[in-house]
Amino acid sequence: MTGRILMIGCGNMGGAMLARWLADGLSPDSVTVVSPSMRVMPPGVHVVAALPDPDDFSAETVMLALKPQQLGALKTPVFARYAPKLLISILAGVEIAALDRLTEAQAVVRAMPNLPVAIGQGVVALHGATDDGAARATAEALMTPLGLVEWIAAEAQFDAVTALAGCGPGFVFRFADALAKAGQALGLPADQAARLAIATLDGAARMAGAADVSPAVLADRVASPGGSTREGLNVLDDGDALVSLMSRTLTASARRNAEMAANARGDLAPL
Description:
The chain is of the alpha/beta class.
């Protein structure tokens, strides 16, 4: 459905997505990556140092996987002549209105993946102003092998989605590390505490995903009245300490997304 894909940039996230697509059966010779450093790509994937001239090269799907602060470099006459059926952007904070000014793409879709897409267990949030059903179907088909796909109705919510799902794995990894360090502080060997923490998180997440009740209910089911789990939950629940901490964390991430959107608008302002 995607036809030829042109990836502009292919760092950690773009590389994770590409690896998963190839593992799912995408033909590597259908992908061309623009990488000024000529970064090594999986066998069969074409790599070029500069954007191909659209007179000599065409791609049905173009994906922007570079850093948001690099987006201004695409405001060029060459890129402006591109007219893909679908332009997908994974750039945090960069709005569709800014992306629309870059090319003559028939449809533009924002995507926010998180790092577990590399193992097909990620989350990909999508938003598109287009009513082009074929373009939306292509975007969804491309993202489905990566994990859970959710369409976000209002672009104004995209910063919140990015903070929750896009940045979320980083926060979970930090929590896992903190859980392990707390176990180590109680006397466990560091390597054993780390294994126990990660396995506990993995099992709990799988259980929550399969449950027909909320995580809050599951937590209460684990906690017997007057038991050790309840004593620990009392610390996390005191003054909504954990909720407050995560609210401040996501707010900081969402604020930065908004700042990047403002910067992108400035970088892509008409000459």
